[in-house]
Design brief:
293 residues, alpha/beta, 8-stranded mixed sheet, two-stranded antiparallel ribbon, 14 strands, 21% strand
């Protein structure tokens, strides 16, 4: 895209980004990445470019990833049927092994490799490394689906201090050595909270929060936790958006300054969010003292 601009215009674009660069240098930003932005290879590469660019200008960036579609794909290949109770995936011992293979193995190392190819320095961790994510069984009916009981953030802080981009797959463990499948959004909220992050960016496959889910022009650019709770009561926030918004609220309660739900299908949406005054998606803040972007 920059090829369409003159050198003067390129310089102008860069200088306009300067106040934002200054604002985020040395700050911690957590990016939760999954869903459709992950399936499309070209988009995946753009997300990695954005992350490396932010890392190069001094942002301490942590990438937390899911991998639902890849898990389903391997389960299909292995002839294992997905089972759901009240909309939640039942995770038996064999399924949690598959989840571990896909998330901590294939997806995590692929992302690390991509970041390295783009010129970043990345190290992959799972929630099991140094008991980063401690968990317990959420509900016996669901099997090895975990509820987070503790975050041991030290390994992530250490990697950030040493100048790496930590790439985290959301598996949990308990003191007995069991492995749990952990919801990626929830894990990202807890990790961002434990780091006291400046911002948590949740990449999804919708434009953000919409007043009318069929009309992208009804995007809500910004709302407070109180407003989010009210919209939920009104039924405007519904379906798959409920857990996402609850994770935003959780992150803010845990100490994150603000959370953005954005469309991961838009090229370079992370850079638009952090380095322009337009922003992208919906920002959830703690209250009145926050300004958008």
């Amino acid at each position: 895209m920059l090829n369409d601009f003159s050198n003067a215009q390129r310089a102008e674009i860069l200088t306009q980004a300067l106040p934002y660069i200054r604002r985020y240098t040395g700050k911690t930003v957590v990016v939760k990445y999954g869903g459709n932005a992950m399936i499309n290879e070209q988009l995946k590469q753009q997300v990695m470019e954005d992350i490396v660019l932010l890392w190069l200008i001094g942002v301490k960036i942590v990438l937390v990833h899911g991998g639902g579609p890849e898990i389903n794909e391997l389960m299909d290949k292995l002839g294992k049927k997905a089972e759901f109770v009240d909309g939640l995936r039942v995770t038996d011992k064999e399924t949690v092994d598959i989840v571990q293979m896909v998330l901590a193995g294939k997806v995590n190392k692929t992302l690390v490799n991509l970041l390295e190819t783009e010129g970043g320095k990345a190290i992959g961790l799972s929630g099991m490394d140094d008991r980063l994510i401690e968990a317990e069984m959420k509900d016996e009916k669901l099997g090895y689906v975990g509820r987070i009981t503790n975050i041991n953030i030290q390994p992530v802080s250490d990697l950030l201090e040493m100048g790496y981009i930590p790439v985290i797959s959301t598996l949990g463990c308990d003191r007995q050595g069991n492995t749990y499948n952990i919801n990626g959004d929830t894990a990202a909220a807890h990790i961002a909270g434990a780091l006291g992050a400046e911002r948590l960016i949740m990449m999804t496959d919708i434009a953000g929060l919409l007043r009318d889910r069929d009309d992208p022009s009804t995007l809500i650019p910004e709302l407070t936790v109180a407003e989010a709770t009210a919209l939920q009561a009104e039924g405007i926030i519904s379906g798959g958006m409920i857990p996402k918004v609850e994770c935003c609220i959780e992150a803010i309660r845990e100490g994150v300054k603000n959370v953005v739900i954005m469309d991961g299908r838009v090229p370079h949406s992370i850079l638009m969010e952090l380095l322009t005054d337009e922003g992208a998606g919906t920002m959830v803040t703690g209250g009145t003292d926050n300004e958008h972007h």
